[in-house]
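A quick aside before the break. I want you to see a complete sequence-to-structure record at least once, exactly as it would be stored in a machine-readable document. Don't worry about memorizing anything.
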Amino acid sequence: MRKAILLLALVVFLAGCSQVKESMREPVDINDTTPYEVSVDDDMSLSKLGDWLNENGLVASKGAFMDYMREEELDKRLQPGDYVITKAMSLAEIAEMITKAPEVAQTIRLTIPEGRENREIAKIFEEAGLFTAEEFLTALQEEEFDYDFLKGLDQQYGYEGYLFPDTYEFYSDASPRSVIVKMLDNFGNRLTQEMRDDAEAKGMTIDDVVRLASIIEREGANHEEFPIISSVFHNRLDIDMKLQSCATVQFIIEERKTNLTFKEMEIDSPFNTYVIHGLPPSAIANPGLVAINAAIYPAETEYFYFVAKGDGENTHYFAETYEEHQENVKKSGDL
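That is the input. The structure line, written in C-alpha cells, reads:
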C-alpha cells in the first residue's frame, strides 16, 4: 500500500514538473507585441543569445530556452540575421525564427546629400518607395530614440541635424524607425570622443555644434572655406552680434532663394537670425562631417562678414569691417 502511495506521489510530482516545464515555454505576455530587434552574427553563441532574450524578458528564463533548443536538437542551427522578437512569442516560435535560414532580402542603395532638411530626406525615401514622407517625419517626432546626444532635445523639431548624410544600404521593406536608427548610429560613430571633448572645452554642447554646423553647411559650398565661414559666426557669437544667415530664413520659407526680400528678413521666427541673437532652436539641415568639424575647429580670423563672389566658383569674399563688406558686396554684383 505504501509503495503504491509513493508511486502515485511520484507520478503527480512528475506531472507537475511537466506542467511547469510547458508553462516556461509559453509566451511571456501574449498581449505584448513590443518589437525587440537583435542582430545575430557568426560570432554570437546560442548562450549569448539566451542571455539577451532573458535580459529583455522575452523568455521565462535562459535555462528554459537552452533546454528547449537542446531537446529539439536546434542548438547547433542558429542562423545569422536580423530578427524582431516579442514577448507574445512562444519558445517554439522564437526557435523556428532563429534557426530558419533567412531569405535574401532585397536592398536599396540611397545617398543622402549633405545639407538636406528632414523634409527633403523624407521625400527621398518616399520617391524610393520605402514609405511615405509623412510616415518618416511622424516617426521622427513620435518615436523614442535612446542616444546620449539626443537627451534633452525638443522632439518637436524632429531631431533636425542628426540624420547623418551618407550613402546607405536599406532593406526594401525597412521601417521609418529602422532607417532613422541607422542614420543616428552613423552620427554617433562619426562624432568622436575627441570632438566631443574639444567642443565641451570651447563651451559648446553637441547641439550647439550641430546647429552651427547646419548653418555653415547651408551657407557654404566650398569645403575649404567652411572653417573661415565658421570663424565669422564664432566671432559674431562671441560679441552677441546677430548671425544674419540667409540660410535660416530659407529654412523658414522652405525655399532656397538667392536673394531675400526685406520683408522675409523681418519674419518673426525663432529661426530668423536677422531677428534673434544666437543660434536658432534647432539645426536647419543635416550637416556633414566637414561642417561639423568646422563648427568645432573654426579658422582664426577677424572676419565678421562674407558674401558670395557670384563668379560661379561658389566661393566668398570675407571682410573684417562693414565698410570692407560693402565694397565686397559691390564687387559681387549683389547691389
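Two observations worth writing down. Strands lie at 36-40, 81-85, 107-111, 167-171, 305-308, 316-319. The chain is about 45% helix and 10% strand. We'll return to this after the break.
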